[in-house]
Every structure is written in structure tokens, then in C-alpha cells.
């Protein structure tokens, strides 16, 4: 019997995981482990963080459970001793803590516009690129901005994401 030469593309949950990796890859205190297939449509990955405050901040803003059809992806954030970390309430300073030391991050800013307060997490003006089985790209890459990735993988907390002006 001949082996099939049919190309198989990675399912979208691998793209989701790669986006999380891309968002934190420039931070030497954060290690996003590989995606593990737990069976029955369940996938998981661990985010190891060597700083306790940063681990708590990342846990507060990362989506820890995502459902894509009949597939569930679970993210677990572990602190310096590879233990679970405390739950904290996410506010604008949480993003500063989570992304401090990450070159993809620029700053957080609060602004009052027409009497309304807005909080922004601003990312550097650069393209995030990784190989992703993307047939719409000649090289098979995903190409995007950190602000778009943040919208995809972080919780909705009222903080808006944007890119630095250049």
C-alpha cells in the first residue's frame, strides 16, 4: 500500500498556541511550553514564569480556557517554583507587570476623552511573524501585530490594545 502524499494543515488551536508563544517570546522570564494533546479534544499548555508578580499578572490577563468547536485549550500559569499562582484582579498596572521586560511591549497609558476614562496597552510597532502552515502566505507564515494577537489571546478586561506610532 502506498503512503499518502496529501499535505495536512495544522488545526487552528495550534495557531492560537503559537500566538501566545509569540506574545511572550521576547521575555526571558516567560516560557510558554509546547501544546499537549490530552485526548478527547482537550489540549493544554503551561506558561512557566520565573517572577511571581509577573506570573500572577499573566494569569490575570490570559484566557485560561478557550473552546474552538469541540476542542478545548487550557493554559496553566505556574510561578517560579512551578506552583500555581494567586488570582489577582486585572487593571492597567497588571499589563505593565505582565509585559515589563518584553521588547514587544511599549507602555500602558490611561486617558480621559470627553469625560470618559480609557486604558491602553501599547505595543511596539513591529510585525510578529511565525511559521504557521498558512497557505495564503507564500512562506507559510502568520504575519500580524502584537495588538491583534493580544485581542485574540488575552481576556477582555476593558483595556484596549494598540500599536505605537512611528
Question: How would you describe what is shown here?
Answer:
The chain has 166 residues and is an alpha+beta fold. The protein has one domain. It contains four helices and ten strands. Strands 1, 2, 3, 4 and 5 form a five-stranded mixed sheet that branches. A hairpin with a 2-residue loop joins strand 6 and strand 7. Helix 1 packs across helix 4. The model has no long low-confidence stretch (mean pLDDT 93).
How do you describe this structure in short?
By secondary structure, the protein is α+β, with helices and mostly antiparallel strands. The protein is 23% helix and 36% strand. The chain has one domain (12-163).
- What proportion of the residues is helical, as a percent range? 10-25%
Q: Spell the H/E element sequence.
A: HEEEHEEHEEEEHE
Identify the overall geometry.
globular
Q: Helices and strands: which structural class?
A: alpha+beta
Beta-strand content estimate: 35-45%
Q: Runs with pLDDT <50, length 5+?
A: none
Largest sheet: 5 strands, mixed
Tally of structural domains = 1
Average pLDDT for all residues: 93
Amino-to-carboxy terminus distance: 58 Å
What is the alpha-carbon Rg in Å? 17 Å
DSSP E strands, number: 10
Number of helices: 4
Amino acid at each position: 500500500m502506498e503512503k499518502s502524499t496529501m499535505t495536512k494543515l495544522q488545526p487552528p488551536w495550534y495557531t492560537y498556541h503559537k500566538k501566545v508563544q509569540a506574545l511572550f517570546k521576547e521575555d526571558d522570564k516567560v516560557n510558554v511550553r509546547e501544546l499537549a494533546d490530552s485526548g478527547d479534544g482537550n489540549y493544554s499548555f503551561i506558561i512557566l514564569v520565573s517572577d511571581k508578580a509577573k506570573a500572577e499578572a499573566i494569569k490575570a490577563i490570559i484566557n485560561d480556557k478557550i473552546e474552538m468547536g469541540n476542542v478545548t485549550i487550557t493554559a496553566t500559569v505556574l510561578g517560579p517554583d512551578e506552583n500555581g499562582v494567586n488570582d489577582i484582579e486585572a487593571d492597567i498596572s497588571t499589563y505593565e507587570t505582565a509585559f515589563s521586560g518584553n521588547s514587544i511591549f511599549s507602555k500602558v497609558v490611561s486617558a480621559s476623552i470627553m469625560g470618559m476614562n480609557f486604558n491602553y496597552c501599547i505595543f511596539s510597532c513591529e510585525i510578529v511573524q511565525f511559521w504557521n502552515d498558512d497557505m495564503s502566505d507564500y512562506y507559510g507564515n502568520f504575519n500580524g501585530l502584537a495588538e491583534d494577537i493580544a485581542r485574540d489571546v488575552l481576556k477582555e478586561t476593558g483595556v484596549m490594545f494598540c500599536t505605537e506610532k512611528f
